[in-house]
Design a protein that fits this description.
With about 170 residues, the protein is mostly helical. The longest helix has 22 residues. Helices cover about 75% and strands about 0% of the residues. Helix 3 packs antiparallel against helix 4, helix 4 runs antiparallel to helix 5 and helix 6 packs across helix 8. It is elongated. It starts with a helix and ends with a helix. It has a domain of about 100 residues.
Length: about 170
């Protein structure tokens, strides 16, 4: 949608610049067009990245953080951006946050980030995540490992079990 908007820049400007439609206050200046181009570039990069064969679960959170930062920077910089652009960015941020929140409902994202050699807990600390959230992510990861992957205690095998195994094996093979 933004790409089409950029491709039709001349038409958009001509339409908004008409005094008869009362929309001249919404004409975008060069800085706003640059912000839109930058946003399109960031979203295109993210789309290409996630469409390739290389993305992993652990790369989702950092990519969403990068998009979130781009959106937040545009919203915060009130001196440069007009109200319609800030509003559009806030809608984009709200949509991104909706999907970002869904990652909290899935333990796989937490575990992937914690177990990723490049991220581990340091990613969350640098990103300013709460200690409570980090502790919960560690607990979820540890509990999953204990439930699914922790080796069970070796059990003693009595001689009757070994004898029965060989007797059954002998009679099945005969």
């Amino acid at each position: 949608m933004l790409t089409a908007f950029i491709e039709m820049k001349d038409l958009v400007v001509a339409f908004l610049d008409r005094s008869s439609n009362g929309m001249s206050e919404y004409i975008l200046d060069d800085e706003e067009w640059a912000v839109i181009n930058g946003l399109v570039s960031a979203l295109k990069d993210a789309t290409l990245f996630f469409s390739s064969n290389t993305p992993s679960v652990a790369s989702v959170i950092p990519a969403m953080d990068a998009i979130d930062e781009a959106l937040a920077t545009g919203i915060i910089d009130n001196n440069i951006l007009s109200e319609p652009i800030r509003h559009a960015l806030s809608i984009g941020k709200k949509t991104l946050n909706k999907y970002y929140a869904l990652t909290d409902n899935s333990t796989i994202y937490r575990m992937a980030m914690i177990l990723h050699p490049s991220f581990k807990l340091e990613y969350f600390r640098k990103a300013g995540w709460s200690d409570e959230w980090i502790a919960e992510a560690v607990t979820v990861t540890r509990e999953h490992w204990e439930r699914r992957y922790k080796p069970s205690e070796p059990t003693a095998v009595d001689s009757a079990t070994v004898r029965d195994f060989f007797l059954i094996k002998f009679f099945i093979d005969c």
